[in-house]
Amino acid sequence: MVRAYTQEYIYKHPWDRVTSASWRKFTEHENRRVLTHILEVDTLSCKLDLLSRKLYITRAVTIHFPGPWFIRKIVGQDICHCIESTIVDAQSRSMQLTSRNVSLQKFVEVEEKIRYEPHPNNPSEWTICRQETSIHIKPLSALASMAEKVEQRYAEKVLKYGATGREVMERICKYLEAESREMAFQS
């Protein structure tokens, strides 16, 4: 069984500020204290395609495995390695991040897609964030009811991490807003 869900969130900040906050989300020390499940983030590649005017970035993300403790015992590890692929199209003002786990795939497959675009009702001031996540716990398929419960617990953790991430993004956006006001005032 695969558990999938979609969330939408409206940032009352312009697209360029929200996407700037997204890049700072994992890199600032203060955020790491809040996003405790993130252990390491490394940029693997960064390419600007001059023809399409798109930026392509691939990062390796190491996280605490968010599954229940007994699954971590079965798996034998409590960290998970993921690959995050990001495409930024400044011309159409869209940013899409796709993350997949590359370790523990015998046990669990998680794919998360996040897309930031200007909000259709207020494109110059607001940004809409759409998040799609699918979770598939594999080794328990013979025990479908248990697999379903594990997927539910895993989904609850992912939702919690998503909410924490949005709080961090909001804080960064407010900081960037204040920083831009201060720069404008000094000019």
UniProtKB/TrEMBL annotation:
Q: Tell me where in this chain the PRELI/MSF1 domain is found.
A: 2-181
Which Gene Ontology cellular component terms are annotated?
A: mitochondrial intermembrane space
Name the domain of life.
Eukaryota
Tell me the PROSITE patterns matching this sequence. Answer: PRELI_MSF1
Q: Which PANTHER family match?
A: MSF1/PX19 RELATED
Name used for this protein in its record: PRELI/MSF1 domain-containing protein
Could you tell me which species this protein originates from? Fagus sylvatica (Beechnut)
